[in-house]
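Treating backbone geometry as a discrete language has practical consequences that deserve illustration. Part of our work consisted of pairing the sequence of a single chain with a tokenised description of its backbone. What the numbers capture is local backbone geometry rather than side-chain detail. For completeness, the protein is quoted in full, as a sequence line and a line of structure tokens:
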Amino acid sequence: MPIRRRARHAGPKPDQGERTREEILAAAARVFSERGLAGARMDGIASEAGVNKALIYYYFGGKERLYAAVFDEHFREFNARALEVLGAPGSARAALLRYVELHFDSISRSRNSASLHQHFMTAGRIVQPLVMKYAKPRGDALAKLLERGMREGEFRVVDVRHTLISITSLIVHYFSIAPILRQVSPIDAYSPQELARRRAALLDLIRHGLFVHPESPVP
């Protein structure tokens, strides 16, 4: 009697596997943005992604690793572009304004992005490696830009650490309070008109709060 070989379990084909992984990450981002790590359930993420829960474990191993992978995906491209902008030669004023625009636009792309940023701030040890991988290098690059701008006479002399914190807060806080703004006023903080107004006000405040010559043209 011929011996039947046991078929080996094969994972998804490379192209299909990458698509499946991206779909899981996108679904997880939506669920985590709404419920956070504690409130999210793997069954719910699987349902949102339209896959079997076992497939999520196959790719990510568990909820905490999936949570970290969502943030890794979320910050990778933005951080690469941010470091490029912050390290660009030329006017420190121009580099700072481009960075602020980039950061603001990256959050304003969707309500999921803003909510994920909020969860990232309170996630603690789970995202600590990502803080060191993304947030710290970006913060260091922004600090160097502020120091260069002061040294070259483009920026007022300021406390670099607290100015860095203030710039980040000005960018992020608007999105953090967007749900409250909606409750106390008829304004949709995410409407194109309101986003444009907030973006312009943010850049104006940066110019007049930090630039030595706020009204002079920026190259």
Q: What stands out?
A: Confidence is low (pLDDT under 50) at residues 1-10.
